[in-house]
């Protein structure tokens, strides 16, 4: 008779594999994940079934972490204008704390991992519309969520392609200034 599943071990392995993938990217082989988790590839397969199931779980877990972290950054804060919240979120997302997520999910189009989560690109867009609409509702402009998201995504692609953070930071700041100017008449 085989062992019973041990969810606490599986969770620990998933956390360690996700940490590795966020720092180094999704590996082609299981050995780096096993090493990072302090186990063997055989044990990873035992707990997850197949390589693809493990990689899918790692991607989903990293995405869940990103949604929680970035979602919190986008929530309304009563003590600050929402454009200041967006500015702080931009600094975090493009800074050292956000880089692992941008690195993992930013290269999605060129990645073989796209087959693991084929609907990811759509979800990666639509997941952010709700938090942005809610935040922009605080300034009576929820209809701008798609525009704000498009600007953020476009500037993130620009930053990824050029590594020119000064220029993209300045562009986002300019966008927020324009947004502030549009909001004043509606207050």
From TrEMBL:
Gene3D superfamilies: Tetracycline Repressor, domain 2. InterPro entries: Homeodomain-like_sf, HTH_TetR. Residues 7-66 form the HTH tetR-type domain. This is AcrR family transcriptional regulator. Residues 29-48 bind DNA. It comes from the Bacteria. Keywords: DNA-binding. It comes from Micromonospora vinacea. SUPFAM superfamilies: Homeodomain-like.
């Amino acid at each position: 008779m085989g062992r019973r599943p041990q969810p606490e071990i599986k969770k620990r392995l998933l956390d360690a594999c996700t940490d590795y993938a966020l720092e180094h990217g999704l590996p082609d082989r299981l050995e780096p994940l096993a090493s990072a988790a302090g186990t063997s590839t055989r044990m990873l397969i035992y707990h997850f079934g197949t390589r693809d199931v493990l990689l899918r779980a790692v991607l989903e877990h990293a995405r869940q972490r990103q949604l929680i972290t970035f979602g919190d950054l986008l929530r309304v804060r009563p003590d600050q204008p929402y454009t200041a919240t967006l500015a702080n979120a931009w600094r975090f997302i493009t800074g050292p704390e956000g880089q692992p997520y941008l690195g993992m999910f930013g290269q999605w189009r060129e990645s073989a991992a796209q087959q693991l989560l084929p609907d990811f690109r759509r979800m990666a867009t639509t997941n952010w519309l709700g938090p942005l609409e809610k935040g922009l509702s605080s300034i009576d402009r929820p209809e701008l969520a798609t525009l704000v998201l498009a600007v953020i995504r476009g500037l993130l692609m620009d930053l990824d392609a050029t590594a020119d953070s000064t220029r993209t930071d300045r562009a986002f700041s300019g966008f927020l200034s324009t947004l502030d100017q549009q909001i004043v008449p509606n207050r």
